[in-house]
Automatic annotation (TrEMBL):
GO MF annotation, one: DNA binding
Domain HTH cro/C1-type: 21-57
Highest classification ranks of the organism: Bacteria, Bacillati, Actinomycetota, Actinomycetes, Kitasatosporales
Pfam family, one: DUF5753
InterPro entries with a match to the protein in the record: Cro/C1-type_HTH (IPR001387), DUF5753 (IPR043917), Lambda_DNA-bd_dom_sf (IPR010982)
Protein name per UniProt: XRE family transcriptional regulator
Amino acid sequence: MVNRKELEPEKSPSAAFGQRVRTLRDERGWTQDDLAERMECSATHISAIETGRRPPTKRFATGADRVFGTGDRLLRQSQAVRQTALLEGFPEYLTHEARAAEIRLYEVGVMPGILQTTEYASALTARAVERGAITPEQGDERIALAATRQESLKRTPPPLVFVVLDESCLRRPVGSPATMDGQLARLVEFAAMPNTVLQVAPFDMGDRRPLNLPVTVLTLPDRSLMSYAESSQRGHLEREIASVLPMLTAYHQLQAEALSQASSVAMIEQLRKGTP
């Protein structure tokens, strides 16, 4: 079959679920269009499920069990996917981040994952485990993912990465003083890289701040745009250019109002010295 993507079921629970769906579909001689018609969704959605690019929702798994006559086997398998520490929608975002030509992100309150040191990520995770928000295993997944994402930024050619941090990211203590010092030092190192720009949006920007919530805008190799934002329940990818362009415009306005990279690094160094 032309353009039939090879699956890697060992890569993730989503990939394993996708292989199971493809196997069941192949056993019945159905195309993706055939299954999509029975599932009342699109063939593109079926493709994303089968290749592990989109995790199955409970509704999808229940519908697949009904169509395939598999009892509740797919529903039970999908639970392993949903019991991850990652928000629904985030795994799909990661596939695009890993190939983006440009990454623009704005963060509030906490360092973004692509900049977190292991010690900083571990301190955040330990608190989440203490609160019962995630399991220790999910915590390990989060820490490993932060390291993996940072390694992916070292690909050749590397992406251009623009980061604007709300001042709260710098002033919110996480872990020990040594943990924070190491994290701030990591920011200085990041700013010195040839393919990065780091800026701080200071508190005194006040109502001149065009963005109040974290957001990421990706420029893909074909120059198409995509934005990503999160709620407390899920992540949302936006591909409609009419929705993404205003987000990109607001990001550029944010950069214009934020401190320059030199002033941002100076602020970080002052915090490392313990001066206001």
